[in-house]
Amino acid sequence: MGYQLKNEQLIVDIAEQGHYRGTRFDWSGFITGVTLRQGNHSFCVPESPTPGLGTGGEGLCNEFGIADPIGYEETQPGEMFPKLGVGLLTRGDEAAYQFYKQYPVVPFRQEVIQDSASELSYTIYPQECRGYAARLEKRVRLEDHRLIIDYNLHNEGSKTISTTEYNHNFLGMDQRGIGPGYTLKFPFELEPEVDEEGSMDHMLFQGREIHWSGRQESWFYFRLRGAAQAYKPQGWIWDLFHSESRAGVREISTYTVDSIAVWGEKHVISPEIFIRLHVAPGEIYSWSRVYEFYKA
């Protein structure tokens, strides 16, 4: 059945434990739906509209170590390495780590407590692996029009934890396809680094904003050059708005940004804001992701 958080402004659906069993995304606090009561607007969509395709992402789900999994380089084939929020994964061969690959996994033990109608808490317990051990605490809560995800990462091992974390943010307003009407903006001038030419033919970069001149018909991915240096905390990191529905969502977190990427398909757009984690043994690193949903 999963869990549901509610207040006077928002309804948030969170998957039950075991709903997602892949080895990419954090298993805890897997947010599959957000509804803004004013106008009954929805925001979350699946990574792929075709069941079985993609890596199983949906809504607001986060990932640790997409390019720098903890301890992978020092792990031999047949040995395990930790994937935060997931479990101990087994390296199969000499190939580089691939975030989209399904690895054999021994899941971390996790507990969930619904503290109130508007708050839910997770604890993911450590399991030692060649000197690495981390306890992850996550709290999902609602305050007015805001959805807040608080993280506490405790390094309980003997080795430093050095990796990245981001939320994939699989978004699409009221299930509307990506195209004219959408605007994605950032609080700095945009300089995109494109992975594949031709995937962004309908995307218009205008100063700090991205618009669409036609329907998006293919996947796209780009990084924003110099984003960590260009971004200065000023109330929000990104803002996605749909002019016809007049519904929008923005991230107003205040952590230090490491890098920014944007991925999407014809039905989904995902601003990805990365942070850098460097946690010495015995230390705790805390951060929060804050989303504000609104009707203009």
Structural domains: how many: 1
Query: Which structural category fits the helices and strands?
Result: mainly beta
What's the alpha carbon Rg, rounded to whole Å? 19 Å
The number of helical segments is 1
Give the strand tally.
23
Q: Hey, roughly how much beta strand do the residues contain?
A: 35-45%
* CATH-level-2 architecture: Distorted Sandwich
- Give the helix proportion (percent range): under 10%
Please give a structural write-up:
The structure is a single chain. The chain is an all-beta fold and 296 residues long. It has one domain: Beta-galactosidase, Chain A, domain 5, CATH 2.70.98. Helices cover 1% and strands 45% of the residues. It has 1 helix and 23 strands. A 10-stranded antiparallel beta sheet has the order 9-10-11-12-23-20-19-14-17-16, with no helix packed on it. It is globular, with a radius of gyration of 19 Å. The two termini are 33 Å apart.
Secondary-structure map with pairings?
Blueprint: E1 3-6, E2 10-14, E3 31-36, E4 41-42, E5 62-64, E6 80-83, E7 87-90, E8 105-107, E9 110-116, E10 119-124, E11 134-143, E12 146-155, E13 161-167, E14 182-185, E15 192-194, E16 203-206, E17 209-212, E18 220-224, H1 227-230, E19 238-242, E20 247-251, E21 259-265, E22 268-279, E23 284-295
Antiparallel strand pairs: 1-2, 2-3, 3-4, 5-13, 6-7, 7-8, 9-10, 10-11, 11-12, 12-23, 13-22, 14-17, 14-19, 15-18, 16-17, 18-21, 19-20, 20-23, 21-22
